[in-house]
Every structure is written in C-alpha cells, then in structure tokens.
Design a protein that fits this description.
Elements: E1 3-8, E2 29-30, E3 32-34, E4 43-49, E5 53-61, E6 81-87, E7 94-100, E8 106-114, E9 117-118, E10 133-139, E11 151-159, E12 176-185, E13 192-195, E14 211-215
Length: about 220
C-alpha cells in the first residue's frame, strides 16, 4: 500500500509571511494522472500534522482557472479543484472529503459510503476550532474566474475537532489513516484527473483502495 510518513510540527499561521519555513521539513508528493483526460500538468502536495490537525499544501501547473462558483458548499467539483479524502477508522464506512478551488471556495463533507452508495453531509457548528483555515494563490495571472495563469496553490488546515466522532481521531504518533489526494481540471473541456494513490483510478470514492498517511512518532519540528 502506498504510504506517506507525515512529519509533526508546531501549529502555524498559513497566512503569515514566514509560513513557508514550516513546510521545509515536508517532502513533495506527486499526483499521477488517471483516466484519459487531455491535460498534462504537474501536480504535487505536501502534508504536515500537529496536535490540533493536518496541514496540506498543493502546488499545480495550469493555464486557465476554469472556476466561477463563489459560494461554499456548492458543487465545486464541476470546476477546477484539489481534494483530500481522510478515512481515519477502517471499521467505519465513513470518511471525510475536502475540496477547494483556486478562488478559495470550499466543500467540506462527511461521506457515508455503503458499497458504492454514498452521499455527503455538511458539518454542523462549522465555526471556531472546527473551522478549516484556508488560503489560495495564483501564479502568472490574477485570482479570478477564467483567468489565464501559469499555476495556482492551495494551503489549508483541517482541525481534528471537525472530525470529532470518527474513530481514531485524533491520531496518535505512529498511527495511520487511510487517505488520498486528488485534482480535477477542465482546461481542455473534458475533465482531467490526478490522484496521489492511483489505485482508485477515476473513482475517487473507492476508499478501499486509498493509500495511507502515517503520523510521525517524532517530536514536532
């Protein structure tokens, strides 16, 4: 099974000017194109964890921001997004999905999946310590719908408090969660898809084929 050892860090502010320093200990992990989509862009991600939650950083090549939705919880997967799936407890057919667009629009949902029959549920009391922190940026062009760019990035923090009620939350040093990371892009009309663990193919909800995030047992850097 494909696995990432996720380094532990002290919590930091994603929007701070020196936030890049926190990412230096994390390795880049490439996402692999799945399916027959026409686009051929490089896509990579970094992951960190703290006592309070998980940090993700996506860096992607692109030419145009095919996204116009501006309301959180809309069906933003119909436009350009990156996604993370977290399945903390393999005894439960239940996992967390997070999507974010280049415009910073988000879709956080809990997904019960019974043999391929699944539906997302929106978080309750999505505020305070349960709120996901996020920031996006573009390269080579403005951060606006349908803009021409050379790439974009998304950084976000998923607090363990948001996942309360799932088994194996919060994780302990050395424990593992099944997981995957994805990207969807619509530059060429038909969608192109990427996955960190390509065993799922284009079925992003094939959670039995997810890879694994193992939480580093070392001290925070």
């Amino acid at each position: 099974m494909k696995e990432i050892l996720v380094e532990q860090v002290h919590d930091f502010d994603l929007s701070a000017p020196d936030s890049y320093k926190a990412w230096t200990s994390a390795k880049w992990h490439d996402l692999i194109k799945v399916g027959n989509g026409p686009a051929d862009y490089k896509t990579r991600a970094k992951i960190l964890w703290s006592e309070k939650g998980m940090y993700f950083l996506f860096d992607v090549e692109d030419k145009k921001l095919h996204c116009a939705m501006t309301r959180d919880f809309d069906d933003i997967y119909r436009e350009d997004v990156v996604e993370v799936f977290l399945w903390p407890d393999e005894s439960q057919a239940l996992y967390f999905e997070y999507e974010i667009s280049p415009l910073g629009v988000e879709l956080p949902i809990l997904v019960p999946n019974s043999k391929g029959a699944f539906m997302g549920w929106r978080p309750w009391h999505y505020e305070g310590e349960r709120l996901i922190r996020r920031i996006t940026a573009t390269y080579g062009g403005p951060r606006k719908p349908m803009a021409d760019v050379s790439g974009w990035s998304a950084a976000f923090f998923i607090p363990f408090a948001l996942l309360k009620g799932l088994g194996n939350v919060p994780p302990k040093p050395g424990s593992a969660w099944r997981a995957n990371m994805y990207r969807i892009d619509y530059d060429s009309g038909p969608l192109t898809q990427w996955a960190w663990c390509p065993d799922t193919g284009c079925n992003f909800h094939d959670y039995l084929r997810f890879g694994s995030f193992r939480f580093s047992p070392g001290s925070p850097t």
